[in-house]
Amino acid sequence: MLADSGVGGNGTNATNLTSSIANLTSSIANLTSIANVTAALANASTAASTAINESTAVAITAAPTAVPTAVPTAAPTVASTIASAAAAANDGGGGFNATNAGLAMQSLSPDETKKIVLAYHFFGFLWTMNLINAIQMCTVAGAVSSYYWARKKEASQIGHFPIAKSFYNCFRYHFGSLLFGSLIIAIVQFLRACLEYIDSKTKKLTDSNKFLKMAMKVVKCLMWCLEKVVKFVSKNAYIIVAMKGKSFCGATIDAFKLIFSNIAQIGIISMIATLLLTLARVSITASCAFITFSTITSDPRFMKGGELEVSMPMIPVVVTTMVAFFISTIFMGVYGLAIDTILVCFCEDRKVNSDGTYYMSEELQKLIGAKVGKKDKKKKGKKGKETEAEAEAPAAAEADT
Questions:
Q1: pLDDT confidence bin for 62, thresholds 50/70/90
Q2: How far out from the chain centre does Cα 102 lie?
Q3: How far is Cα 401 from Cα 394, in angstroms, rounded to an integer?
Q4: Given this model, what pLDDT does residue 320 score?
């Protein structure tokens, strides 16, 4: 009976020991140092089994007084093995520290996370919008330059679908350059937005300090000028990309050279074109608004008591004005880009064809002030046919390729 009670006591201890090891195994299983933890647990399980077997054998074969001596002797071995397993889990070769895991995992607050995500999507929006604008510029510039560099303005040289071909070339040959150029503009615009955000957060500080307020306004003005310069250079670089097929950096260098070598003519033409396009935009918008107002106030259907009575005529007039201004801005932007493309093509034409064999028309040469190339004409017999000696320009060959 005493031997049976000793065996039962050891069985209870063995059960508790096994459950403790099972709990330790389940808690350590979530750690990353799987190899070290598994080895340590294997050693712990082996030591525990050995201790249980030894204590059970002692309890069965020996007197009951030997049980309190056998179990305390095996218990320190099991405890030290489990402690070594925990130490291996914390300081194992995997380099994972379970004690400091919570401190190492730093999480952002919901407000900070929202700001970061908002900034990320805002930058993506700026980049996407500038990329769409770059594709539009390169498409129009490619179609106009193909027309300019054609000796005969016919479909056989220009192509039956110049706009579709130019749009295809944007994705086939120039997409990387357009991505890079739009990225530069997006970065400058994002910096301006960050500057505005900082200004709004430090409004009280800048209001109390006039020097800081003035410095902030100066920095804003410089960033605005930088954005305008980058947009202007990028627009001319896109034209060079569409005309020559160069990379964005090489096209930017060529654009700088053309602008500085023809700065007077480019400045005059740009001012005249801007003035004319602005007048066209304003006249189109004002005409649409006037026609809408006259129609509403003179047509009996829109008057009081009519079948289409309009109680507030200014609402449709304002809406029409906004839509007309938006559409006219788009169309005038295309015309302005065509003018800039022809101007850049002219500068390249005059640079390459210094002997007078220009691709431009004589009217454009006289308007810009360039020298008109003389044409050698020879009459042939009675038919009176004339032949012209034309030298092909390297720029044309580069544009055709």
A1: very low
A2: 35
A3: 11
A4: 92
